[in-house]
Amino acid sequence: MHRILLLVSIVLTFNSCKNEISMSAQEIVDKSILVSGGENYKSLDFEFDFRGRHYKSKLTNSNFEYTRITLDSSQTIIDSYGNIKPFERLVNIASIKMPDSLSRRIENSINSVNYFVLLPHGLNDPAVNKKFIEEEDIKSKKYYKIQVTFNEKGGGEDFDDVYIYWFNSETFKIDYLAYSFAVNGGGMRFREAYNERIVNGLRFVDYNNYKPDTKDSSLENLGKLFENNQLKLVSKIETENIVVH
Question: What is the DSSP letter of 10?
């Protein structure tokens, strides 16, 4: 009888571990979105400062509108656009005609800023492909490691970029991320989240931004390089004066 109970206990323990390890990428992302903001992402009106510019962002269901305001001593530049609003630039209130190539570049820059500020919200966009890679320990904590790629349709101009996210296995929050990019000669970055704060139910973080010393490093190996202090700090990504309406 004792042997049967022991066998049942071993099987249940094995199945429990197996189920935890086999959690899908989608389930992990869903849990991360839930603990980071959940329903608050569905209708969102907020603003913030980033690198000397002011941003205003509105999201309602599947619609969005982004605005970036740049001030200097002589002029105010307002760039705005959305999925149902074409790009527009105002300079001291006057509308300025912009070449399509420059408009797309500005949109891409604003998209990128909002993407990182709103993580993990964007990880359930239709153009996103998610794949569970493995469990990995960083700084004595266990993480679910997920790769994200994008479809060409709906994935933006940088659809061929590849991302990796490390989700804390206990909190399901994103503590680290890495990505490879092709623009400006290409490269890789690894970001470490810090300065977590909750503003009206939404999680925001800043990042230490690192890069590998050599170009032969692989994207999937950046977590181990960070663990071994083999990445170089190149900048800090700091979002300031966040207001959620």
Answer: H
Determine contact, residues 195/208, Cβ cutoff 8 Å: no
How far is it, in rounded angstroms, from Cα 198 to Cα 60?
Answer: 20
Q: What is the DSSP letter of 158?
A: T
Neighbouring CB atoms inside 10 A of 245's CB total 9
Q: Which burial class, exposed, middle or buried, applies to 32 when counting CB atoms under 10 A from its CB (0-12, 13-18, 19+)?
A: buried
pLDDT at 170 over 60: yes
Helix, strand, or coil (residue 72): coil
pTM: predicted TM-score of the whole model, two decimal places = 0.87
Q: What's the chain's length in residues? A: 245
Check if the beta carbon of residue 242 is closer than 8 Å to that of residue 54: no
User: pLDDT-based confidence at 17, cuts 50/70/90?
Assistant: very low
- Please name which of 193, 223, 183, 170 lies closest in space to residue 120, comparing C-alpha atoms: 193
- Region 141-146 average pLDDT: 98
Banded pLDDT at 76 (limits 50, 70, 90): very high
First-to-last CA distance in the chain? Answer: 63
How many other β-carbons are positioned within 10 Å of the β-carbon of residue 33? 19
Pairing relationship of beta strands 63-71 and 76-82 according to DSSP bridges: antiparallel
Q: List the domain boundaries for the chain.
A: 38-118, 125-245
Q: What is the pLDDT of residue 158?
A: 65
> What residue has token string 């004066």?
241
